[in-house]
Amino acid sequence: MGAPEVADTSVRIMIAAADAFAEHGFSATTTRDIASRAGLSPAGVYVHFSSKEVLLFELSRRGHMRARDTLVASAREAASPTDALRDIIGGFSRWHADHHQLGRIVQFEFRHLSPEHRAEVLDLRKEIDTVVADILRAGVEAGEFEVDDVRTTALALLSMAIDVARWYQPGLRRTPESIERSYGDLAVRLVRRG
Amino acid sequence: MGAPEVADTSVRIMIAAADAFAEHGFSATTTRDIASRAGLSPAGVYVHFSSKEVLLFELSRRGHMRARDTLVASAREAASPTDALRDIIGGFSRWHADHHQLGRIVQFEFRHLSPEHRAEVLDLRKEIDTVVADILRAGVEAGEFEVDDVRTTALALLSMAIDVARWYQPGLRRTPESIERSYGDLAVRLVRRG
DNA sequence: ATCATGACTAAGCGCTTGCTTAGTGTGACC
DNA sequence: GGTCACACTAAGCAAGCGCTTAGTCATGAT
Q1: Which residue intervals of B51-170 are DSSP H helices?
Q2: Which of A110, A160, A174 would you mutate first to test chain B, the one with the most B CBs within 10 A?
């Protein structure tokens, strides 16, 4: 799974760790496994990362930031709240299929972060929530959407998309492209006026 | 968290294991932790369960069976497909709030089951998928629903409900009751005729 | 009274864990 | 040519792991 050759050792270790965490989970992954996937001795990892937990944090932080950036970018480009919602929920769902390994790590291994690192990741999550909630509010104001409770609806939409990482695997009947299309449409159905 | 006193030792061990798995995850939970939560010596657990993995399996099997039974029961009692859908998605969401510990174990620790045990749990999951898909089909036939792709929509609805176990925790603004109500309504919105 | 049964414990076996220590080889700079 | 910084390895430490073994003790049948 890991890229065969990456020049920068830190990046190579992070890819190795992502593969290992995705395969066995954080606790069941040994630092020896990560090291050997990265082509290093066990001690070589500690030149670049001070602990296994820091590696998980770095993966979580970067994963959340990339997901958030993708989301904000599609929101900005859309012509209307309806287009924006279709694009971000479709795009976010597709992201969780394309990066289902990283997605699983970020969502399921959250508890193994230290309290400080957990708080930092939580802040990133709130940013993501806010992007969706803002689009819903804009849609309601523009008369395009009808929504009972903006925050509950935003949460449900994100749940749909995030859960893709739990069940998706390559080679399935559903492709990332078809997921993007159908989940984008489902999102719009959920908020359209009655 | 564990009930203070339960007569049957097997049940006491299962409650102890559920608490420990929910708190630390399967791999990070030690058999010594389970034993001491159950008031036993480390070896005492092995009188009742032959391994830590078997304990996880028993928890997963019972969790899925209980969830499925709740779901089938509400589906049977409903007067129309619309009522049935609202009841089962609302009820299933609420179940994942009320039993968020068990829900998390069942959803997130799945990979640590042996291949045989995984297959057995997957069969139970398919039964749950089918209950939802059948209601959607009945609703389309009765002219109450409008659905592009029954299986995709069923999956998205289940995702919404299952994901509750990931984010819910007691003391939150959202109560199990309010989750049941709002998620039941969201489900109906998602499939109503345009 | 004797014995069988089954739930349980004390002790510990063999192994693996995350991480450290001490040392090696290499390339940049003066 | 010397040296200094840095990425890296071989070896291993202390602790903890899942699970087993050998034996204790209460109970109930004979």
Answers
A1: 52-77, 81-98, 100-108, 115-141, 150-162, 164-167
A2: A160
